[in-house]
Structures are given as C-alpha cells and as structure tokens.
Design brief:
The chain is built from one helix and 22 strands. By secondary structure, it is mainly β.
Amino acid sequence: MASTVLPNGIIVPEKFSRDWYADLYHNWLELDNLLGGGTPKDGTLTIQKNGDTVGTFTANQATNETINIEVPDVNNGTLTIQKNGDTVGTFSANQATDETINISVPDVNNGTLTIQQNGTTVDTFTANSSTDKTVNIQCVDLANNQTVGGIKTFSNAPVVNSISLDGKTIDTDANGNMTYDGHIVDTIEEQGDGYIRYSNGIQICWGSIPVAIGTAFTFDPPTATYYSRGYNFNYPKGFSFNPVVSFSISSGSNSPFLNVCCETGGSDKKLATGPIMLFCTSSTTIQVETLIYIQAIGRWK
C-alpha cells in the first residue's frame, strides 16, 4: 500500500512498512522525552501543620491516602473597655475590621493646699504631689511649761491654779478677781463719751456744766452766804447704787471764795446729780466763763 497524504500535507507511511515503524519509533522517542526520559517519577507531597508533618503522599502511590488536619474551633470572645465602670467600647476576637476606642483623660490639675496657723503659713501640699507630707501645727499645752510669744487667746482651756508669764504669776484672789504679780487685773467692759465701766463692776462718770457770764447770786441771811440757782447733771450711764460725787470749778472764777455744793435730798441720785449750786461769802456776779466739773464713782452692777 502506498503512503497516504493527509489534507494538511502530512504524509502517513504505509502501515507496517519500514517508514511506518520508523515514524512510530520517532514519535515514541519524542513522547519519552516529553515524559522525562521514560522513567516513572515518584515525588512525595508532604503536608504540614504549623511546621509539623501531618502526612505524605507520593506521586506514584498505588493507593489512596487520607490526611486529616484538625482545625480548632474559632472562638469569638469580646474585650469590653470601660472607664470608671462605664463601657466605652467593645472588640471581638474574630472581628474582621480594626476598632479604635478613645478614652478621654482630663487634664491633671495641681492645686496647692496652704496650711496656716493664726494667718501664718506653716506648709503647703500640692494635689499632684508624688510623696506624702506631714504638716505639724504646734499648739500650746497648758499642762506643761512653755514660752508663749505675742497675744494668745485660749478658749475651753483646762483649769489651772496659776500661770507664770514673763516671771510674773497670773492667779485669782479669794473674790475671783484675776491678779498679776499680786495686783488685781481688770478689763474695760464698756466705755464712751464721759463714762467708763470695768468688768469688776466699777463705773466712773464725768462731765462739766457751764455757768453763764452775768449770773447773779442770791443772799441767804441765815448762812450769810450768796448762792446761785441749781444745776442738774445727768450721768451718761446710770449707776446701780448712788455714787460718790465730787465737784470743782474752773480757775476763771472772779471770786476767791467761790465754792460748789450739791443738795443731798431730792430725786434718785443713781441717774443724775442735783441740784448743784455755786456759793460765796460776798455779793458777786459771774464776770468770766465758769465751768462746774463733776466726777461720780460707783457701781454699775
């Protein structure tokens, strides 16, 4: 049989002819070359998990192989972020997207605590101080001897028999009066224009009465003296008992024999004197300004 020419121009030798066998051998060589030289390969597939070999499978293996890779369950725990017990935001372990949670932190101030004793700064302490601080305010202990400077006021102090101050003893006498170095110490309870009251009950009042120029005197035959009209003086503060009253006159009087007296009878002497009169032993008329001075001492309580 002659060779056959295919439509594409390829010449196919006659079957079983020398050319047919030669062509077949040539094709086999190309196929063997394509398949690696004709020697079967047996590459090994190694399957690992986290770098550790789980199993292998060869390319020329005659049997099937099952290799099981255990995959753990994927949990999805939630992280909850709080500020002072209030939830600010959450983030889950299996979350697919990023999450930004902002916790606003206020500015830290640093105010200063100033500790004073009687207006004098003893020490200070800041709010943002990194160390502890102890501030000691020293107080007077009346149970022990101490040196006290300046003016000190003690309230609710323990009762003591006496106090030594500047080498002098402060104590009380049998009547309850405070004494300093054996002398009664008293304080002013109240004072004003023309009077002063002490805490021990003593009160002093004072003042003056002007006698007008030209004042004439009246003659009193039984006493052979001349006298003026009576003047009253009201005390700035009343007494609880009739006080002791003393009088004097200004040196501007024109008579060397001019004197002053006060009637003992009449109204209550705790609120006012009176009446007060000037008298002399000869006829006279006030020719210069004259003042009658009054001083009363007594008890107000």
